[in-house]
Specification:
The complex is a heterodimer of chains A (about 120) and B (about 45). In chain A, about 30% of the residues lie in helices and about 20% in strands. Chain A is an alpha+beta fold and about 120 residues long. Chain A has a two-stranded parallel sheet with strand order 1-2. A two-stranded antiparallel sheet of chain A has the order 3-4. In chain A, β1, α2 and β2 (about 45) form a beta-alpha-beta unit. In chain B, about 0% of the residues lie in helices and about 30% in strands. Chain B contains no helices and 3 strands. Chain B has a two-stranded antiparallel sheet with strand order 1-2. The mean pLDDT of chain B is about 90. Classes of the chains: A alpha+beta (about 120), B mainly beta (about 45). Chains A and B meet through β1, α2, β2, α3 and β4 of A and β1 and β3 of B.
Chain lengths: ~120, ~45
């Protein structure tokens, strides 16, 4: 299940999804626009550009060899504690314009059932 | 080692694609939050 299709499943379970990368806000704006208004890409994208990777480093998910985040998902409960950390490999799923899309792979179903137990 | 279950999530404020500030703190108390760290926009990471 793709993350953007699962968005309603998450919001029904009081869960907010935030995308984070070390891209600039201008890059994220262009990325968001590239999906087009009809798709309504639902994930809010946050820029960890400057100081570079500051937040990503606090979560210890910064890859200093390539200067970006490692592809991963961190589940935080309502009281602010980390409950699950998943790391993923690069993948090759292309969006409608041929660009890679921010996604969570097959793991979305597991995440939803995990959240229901919180 | 990455952050682990049981750790307190570090608070942060970052700008979104509209240059609007978004704070983790804003969601705490009412929502679970899933942070999806990705490699680069426009790539398959």
């Amino acid at each position: 299940m793709e993350l953007r299709k699962a968005q309603s499943e998450f919001s029904r379970r009081d869960t907010q999804v935030l995308g984070i990368s070390c891209d600039s806000t201008a890059t994220l704006a262009a990325y968001n626009l590239s999906f087009g208004p009809s798709l309504g890409y639902p994930v809010q994208l946050l820029s960890d550009f400057y100081p570079h990777g500051d937040v990503t480093k606090k979560y210890k998910l910064f890859n200093s060899e390539i200067g970006t985040a490692d592809r991963s998902a961190v589940v935080i409960d309502k009281s602010g504690y980390v409950r699950q950390v998943n790391k993923y490999q690069f993948r090759s799923v292309l969006g409608p314009n041929g660009y890679g899309i921010v996604d969570l792979d097959f793991n979305v179903k597991d995440l939803i059932s995990f959240i229901e137990d919180l | 080692m990455a952050i682990a279950p049981g750790d307190k999530a570090p608070l942060f404020t970052l700008m979104d694609h509209n240059r609007k500030n978004v704070s983790l703190e804003k969601f705490l108390g009412r929502k679970n939050v899933i942070l999806v760290f990705f490699v680069f926009a426009f790539t398959d990471g």
